[in-house]
Amino acid sequence: MKLKVLILAGDGIGPEVTQEAVRVLKTVADLGGHDFSFDEKRIGGVAIKADGTPLPKATLDAALESDAVLLGAVGGNEFNSLTPDKRPEAGLLAIRQALGGFANLRPAFAHPALAINSPLRPEVIDGADILFVRELLGGLYFGKPREWNRETGEAWNTMRYNRSEVVRVARVAFELASPRRRKLPSVDKANVLEVSQLWRATVTELAPQYPDVTLDHQYVDACSMHLMNTPRNFDVVLTENLFGDILSDESAVITGSLGMLPSATIGGAVNLYEPVHGSAPDIAGKGIANPLGAILTAAMLLRHSAGLEQDALAIEASVRKVLDDGHRTADLLRGGETKRKATSTQEMGALVHEALNEIIDRRQAMHAV
Length: 369
Ligand code: NAD
Known about the structure:
Layout: E1 2-10, H1 14-32, E2 35-40, H2 45-51, H3 57-65, E3 68-73, H4 88-99, E4 103-109, H5 122-125, E5 129-135, E6 147-149, E7 154-156, H6 163-177, E8 183-188, H7 194-206, E9 214-219, H8 220-229, E10 236-239, H9 241-250, H10 252-255, E11 264-266, E12 271-273, H11 292-305, H12 309-324, H13 345-368
Parallel strand pairs: 1-2, 1-3, 3-12, 5-10, 8-9, 8-10
Antiparallel strand pairs: 4-5, 4-11, 6-7, 11-12
Helix pairs in contact: 1-11, 1-13, 6-7, 11-12, 12-13
Nicotinamide-adenine-dinucleotide (NAD) binds next to helix 4.
């Protein structure tokens, strides 16, 4: 299997966690005899400093020529005074738009070993396994007009969708719900927003084409409460860009830490893979960031861009094993555990690498019998 991966480590903890994700991809390539090649380019704050723009042309060209893009995170406090179009985050929005992926998949599941980390009671999160399908190229983040008029003291953004943008992302959600538990809430604010009324009507029209999936509709405010009260009731959740950004971060409380959440953006010319968390300037450079979200993102890359489902499952099993064995980065040490020594970013990566070696070795030995 040949795969050309572009690495965009970005800012803050981006390079620290991405290094560990690349390590597991190399392990899979070595053990499986795959030909994975890795190129690296700049994006975000590092690109602003070196190239004067958050998304240099060389980065965009390399991304469009790759089979998959693995991104760390962008952003930093030193750029906070810049206008939105000059900030590191502008590079992220621009690359998302250029690659064309419109469906952002964000799984959030409760690891039994991390139950103590959640502020929710273990019996509430036990068995929770949610897949958010967030529309990524429309809504408030891209809609025009948008402006902050400093003279008049007004600012405005535009939440805009057309029917075909809703149809294409809704199809992804219906198709992903079908082999799972076949429950699909579509989340909107149709009691107030016209754009949500269009969203709801369009998703409802599609539903008869997927008779095995049970569609229902929830208002985003109610949904945010139900997610915390009864997370187990959710399977696949379909929603628009802003609501999906907020609800999927909220669901970090189910997994125990924002550092645990992976994501994949599919549907465009090249798929884009990035952990859900940001550049975490408060802990950058300390070697304490949790790399498991980035490592689970690498698993999604193998699943959605390489068709290597068994290897994706092996990475997920390796993460479960190191957690079951009691290893914790600082963000995962909570409650009565805070006196234990935290596992560093690199140590955690090495532990997953070891577990992955064992799991793949065992699988290959079984196949050889
Ligand atoms: P953040 O996700 O960077 O951090 C929020 C909190 O979670 C912080 O306390 C941080 O230390 C912690 N955290 C995040 N990831 C962690 C990890 N892997 N291990 C341990 N702890 C972790 O969000 P923020 O503080 O709101 O934003 C910081 C910067 O990142 C901003 O410039 C923001 O715009 C940017 N951002 C970028 C992305 C992206 O690149 N996809 C996403 C969100 C935020």
